[in-house]
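Subgroup meeting minutes
Present: P.N., E.W., G.H.
Scribe: E.W.

1. P.N. recapped why we're keeping a running log of single-chain structure predictions: easier to compare across weeks, and new members can see raw inputs and outputs side by side.
2. G.H. added today's entry (198 aa).
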Amino acid sequence: MATMTSKQQARRERVIEVTMELAVEGGYDAVQMRDVAMRADVALGTVYRYFTCKDQLLVCVMAEWTGQLRDRLAQRPARGDIASAQVADVLQRACRSLEREPLLAAALVRAMSSSDTGVSQANREVGAHIRAMIEPLLHELDPETREAVIVVLNHVWLATLISWSNGRIVFSQVAEELRSAARLLLDPDPRLPGRGGV
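Output recorded in log:
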């Protein structure tokens, strides 16, 4: 991105916008590179110059979406009196945003499971946005514990989304699993008085 001209960046952003539109309309199978190029009014070679495959393109949509969510959260801070409640609030907002567009959500989750090298890099960007939303809420934890909590929550989030996209759970369970994970990781254990989370 840093080496792109403003026109190239604009074309890339247009390709991402069109991909999101197609996924909202018809899900994973509706996103075809040729159709993306036609609707974005760019050459097919231009699409491939920016994205090696459809899955990378979809995960870049996910990165764009999580970046927008991060910006919105900066305007409306997490609700709750304790860290577990605040983390759960952030993750539930993310879930509600995805739930509003189920075809898009299913397409993004499917793409995130790809082993393509370009997808891995885009997945890291998604993870960085999620981290940026959660990390400030965990400032009271020592760095090692904070890192462990973020990693586990990321894994729970992705695993529950995959279970939902495969039809094993309903979407409301995704939010509930995340809320439970936040409580288990961050709330004191009532069976062990005085002991903190992880």
